[in-house]
Design goal:
The protein is an all-alpha fold and 162 residues long. It folds into 2 domains: 3-47, no CATH class; 51-158. The protein is built from 7 helices and no strands.
């Protein structure tokens, strides 16, 4: 019994896997299998969750949690609550967008990209959350620096060496 069948992928996946194996030269056209250990090893590497995928997932969880908290944290009786809510919302919207970018940052093959996205999220969104919840403007510098770091993260995806 084949591994793909055991995992519940069915005949379509088996057929696709056989086609891939033939294309890569790991299976003869007559259907006899050659040594497929290398192909399976390569597929495990390709399908293995990466560090950025895990960090991006965790960041997404935090962003959604902060959005849910923000939906209930603001009381309209507070002074400037509408403005503070807008600042807080900018924080979690940027957090969500950049969590997705962080998730796929490994695909550009530049290790610095994931670090820049993480730092930018912490600085920008963290500052927005802090300012939105406390109402203190001393956190504005964090958002300014965070924007520059996030721009640097996007630039690192297209420029520079591996």
């Amino acid at each position: 019994m084949d591994l793909w069948y055991i995992l519940g992928y069915g005949k379509e996946a088996l057929s696709a896997f056989d086609t891939l194996a033939k294309a890569l030269g790991y299976q003869k056209a007559d259907g006899k299998k050659e040594d497929m250990k290398e192909l399976v090893k390569a597929l495990r590497i390709l399908l293995k969750p990466t560090f950025s995928l895990r960090i991006g997932g965790l960041s997404g969880i935090v962003a959604v949690s902060m959005a849910a908290y923000g939906a209930h944290a603001f009381k309209e009786k507070k002074k400037n609550s509408k403005e503070l809510r807008k600042i807080y919302k900018k924080g979690y919207m940027m957090h969500l967008v950049h969590s997705v970018a962080l998730t796929y940052s490994d695909t550009c093959n530049k290790p610095v990209t994931g670090g820049l996205f993480t730092l930018g999220i912490i600085l920008y969104s963290g500052s927005c959350y802090a300012q939105g919840l406390t109402g203190e403007s001393k956190f504005e510098n964090g958002t300014k620096i965070g924007v520059l770091v996030l721009i640097g993260a996007w630039l690192s995806m297209i420029y520079g060496e591996k």
